[in-house]
Amino acid sequence: MSRKMKNKVITNLHIERIASEGKCLGHHEEKVVFVTGVAPGDVVDVRITKGKSSFMEGEPVKFHEYSKERIDPFCSHFGICGGCKWQHINYDLQKTYKRQQVLDQFQRIAKVDIPEVMPTLGSEKTRYYRNKLDFTFSNKKWLTIEQIQSGEDFDRNALGFHIPKMFDKIVDVDHCYLQGNISNDVRNELRTFALANNLSFYDIRNQVGLLRNLIIRTTSTEQSMVIVQFGENDQEGIQKVMEFLHEKFPQITSLLYVINTKGNETFHDLELVTFSGNDFIEEEMEGLKFRIGPKSFYQTNSEQAYELYKVARDFADLQGDEVVYDLYTGTGTIANFVAKKAKQVIGIEYVPAAIEDAKINSQINGIDNTLFYAGDMKDMLNEEFIATHAAPDLIITDPPRAGMDEKVVQMLLRLNAPKIVYVSCNPATQARDVALLAEKYDVEKIQPVDMFPQTYHVENVISLTLRK
């Protein structure tokens, strides 16, 4: 983009529709303009921030007309922390767009014949629906322009979320509407305690400081797990923090900590210490119990996860005599959920700790027709593995956002399973994989499921049948 275009203000731009990644778009002089923080039907002045020959990006600087689709955001942090992009858009339109997003990705990327995309299955809860949140301690609290210009001396310690595109700036969260239960109380009380006791908040740039990260997990069974990451091995400070949490919140059923002096916040390769309670929490679904450890993945919207897995099970249409491969099985939630309707379920997952949880989940539920293996999918799912196990009648795959490795897709094509049920948190990579699977498979059903209200993310379940 030429320098003269940057910071140029386009006046009276009509916002036409929602685009990708939560942005909306309009047209100016035959160019697409992507705009953040607006809704379809708004008429705004837009300051251009960047662009190329065929499009521009910008931010609103003045609203002339407000859309009828617009609603008032309910969170004081909306527009700052980046956790919720769509609080200003009514929920029915959110669901409509999420369906359109799936349709667009399949038409643009997969380029295969598809059935009608079913309406998005909405979440009953649109607030307090998450069961897991990560908060970051920082000595670089984000300040508003007004605060900076005031000349006042502000305390820069914060506990909250990263500002989008600013890795070292943290918005100090007062109340978050994503997670209920004890989440807000634990975060706010711990911050107050830390400030009162002069405990150091982490310096992200210099990687020093005691308090680094706070993870809170909750379940529909009212169990809770709190994990504190410490950036220094200061046993006196660690003991002080953990004793405070234990005494202030005796209802915490799993209280753990980890000392992390690495360059990032991941702790899958680190030892966690159980300060009090169990080293796991339990979720329930249709009478089944699922044990979740500190390193385990579990869908972050528990109630909607049940709806998601029911869709997957319905698409599978198991009759009781099938061998099922459950790829990217995690803690074996889907595997154990469908096991009673299958002859055998074989789950594969990269994280060893998750596989141990999957095995325990089968044991505590009296399920004896599951097998679980830990390893990289593209290495595990090979000719030798297939030769030592029964061929699959059904494959269920629920990969991470990056989708399936091409080697895995090629193996699925060699397996010739009559049906594949593909659960995805990223319709774009799902559509890419479907384009490859289209060599042998047809898309039979498509069901978007909204796991994350107030955001542009959508889960999608499809069933594919082997072409005869």
TrEMBL record:
<feature type="binding site">
    <location>
        <position position="398"/>
    </location>
    <ligand>
        <name>S-adenosyl-L-methionine</name>
    </ligand>
</feature>
<keyword id="KW-0489">Methyltransferase</keyword>
<feature type="binding site">
    <location>
        <position position="349"/>
    </location>
    <ligand>
        <name>S-adenosyl-L-methionine</name>
    </ligand>
</feature>
<feature type="active site">
    <location>
        <position position="425"/>
    </location>
</feature>
<dbReference type="InterPro" id="IPR030391">
    <property type="entry name" value="MeTrfase_TrmA_CS"/>
</dbReference>
<feature type="domain" description="TRAM">
    <location>
        <begin position="3"/>
        <end position="62"/>
    </location>
</feature>
<dbReference type="GO" id="GO:0070475">
    <property type="term" value="P:rRNA base methylation"/>
</dbReference>
<dbReference type="InterPro" id="IPR012340">
    <property type="entry name" value="NA-bd_OB-fold"/>
</dbReference>
<dbReference type="InterPro" id="IPR030390">
    <property type="entry name" value="MeTrfase_TrmA_AS"/>
</dbReference>
<keyword id="KW-0949">S-adenosyl-L-methionine</keyword>
<dbReference type="Pfam" id="PF05958">
    <property type="entry name" value="tRNA_U5-meth_tr"/>
</dbReference>
<dbReference type="GO" id="GO:0070041">
    <property type="term" value="F:rRNA (uridine-C5-)-methyltransferase activity"/>
</dbReference>
<feature type="binding site">
    <location>
        <position position="328"/>
    </location>
    <ligand>
        <name>S-adenosyl-L-methionine</name>
    </ligand>
</feature>
<dbReference type="InterPro" id="IPR010280">
    <property type="entry name" value="U5_MeTrfase_fam"/>
</dbReference>
<feature type="binding site">
    <location>
        <position position="299"/>
    </location>
    <ligand>
        <name>S-adenosyl-L-methionine</name>
    </ligand>
</feature>
<dbReference type="InterPro" id="IPR002792">
    <property type="entry name" value="TRAM_dom"/>
</dbReference>
<dbReference type="Pfam" id="PF01938">
    <property type="entry name" value="TRAM"/>
</dbReference>
<comment type="similarity">
    <text>Belongs to the class I-like SAM-binding methyltransferase superfamily. RNA M5U methyltransferase family.</text>
</comment>
<feature type="active site" description="Nucleophile">
    <location>
        <position position="425"/>
    </location>
</feature>
<keyword id="KW-0808">Transferase</keyword>
<protein>
    <submittedName>
        <fullName>23S rRNA (Uracil1939-C5)-methyltransferase</fullName>
    </submittedName>
</protein>
<dbReference type="InterPro" id="IPR029063">
    <property type="entry name" value="SAM-dependent_MTases_sf"/>
</dbReference>
